[in-house]
């Protein structure tokens, strides 16, 4: 089902290796404004390629990329490889270190309708367009998306464990996560990775916007190429693969922020009572504990007041019949349908385009934005289970945008993948079974 290839990767020149953490960057949607300022202050940080600034950011990235190549800021590996990528982390109160094990390779940019790469959430239209523009200008990928495969036997783990003993990089990132990257260039071993993934479907965990951009770009290039074969670089996309059946996969919540909402707090609470049980809280700090064990429960935070809201159980029957059964019990679907659609009157079909909705993964920053007036109010959510993600993906339906936050996030800048034909081209037939 899923066709993968090794990557003929671009990486920072060896002279940068000792301080590689200074050149990597978080994915843009998890970096704070203060962190962002520091990253942009380093002229060689990968953020200049992944999220360029300026009036024409895509063109700026393209010019910078050419400069980096000419000055050997980055260099391309001579032969392709499978890049093993381990992330070691701890949560507060956790004694033993967890590790998420995976590898980075190229995957064919399968269209959604092909049913090989399965998505679980909607995208935000503007973010997709930005990714497409950047890909058109640079033909370069500065960070992998994150895909899950299901392997109960963990067949690839012994090869990854052996490779990670001889790392290319080992660093501590902005999250306090220990990041380790290694490479497998043995043809025999690479064939095993290709064989294992060949009979899998891939569940897209993170990077829906970048993957959708890759699909669009592939279609554009195919239409312009009368000699299209399907083997060109534009057919492929860089992805980080992890086993969905691993015990160390973590999904954290993403909270919802609302701005420029004309409804006053009193009116929102009045409308809510038609659908939800509303309980005013004495302390905002109580929210996560109070909603954690309760189905269809959320925190609602205004500048002066905070509430716990829980859907009235009988109301679940009032879902539109077009909403499939597999989605009806998912907390975030309940939130987007009964609160954002019914109470705030922002229709489900318009929410992914709405400028009134923003997303924040950090609870402290979320509450701070409400307190300082940068948001009208916030809805605090809790994480969804891996089983729910798998069920939704396999059903063919999608959850609302920003439904999942797989922790830890991957880094940009550890390696890059070019789909420009002269840089991508290689006799990949040597790796095929």
Automatic annotation (TrEMBL):
Pfam families reported for this sequence: DUF1015
Cited InterPro entries: UCP033563
PANTHER family: DUF1015 DOMAIN-CONTAINING PROTEIN (PTHR36454:SF1), LMO2823 PROTEIN (PTHR36454)
Record protein name field: Uncharacterized protein (DUF1015 family)
Organism: Cecembia calidifontis
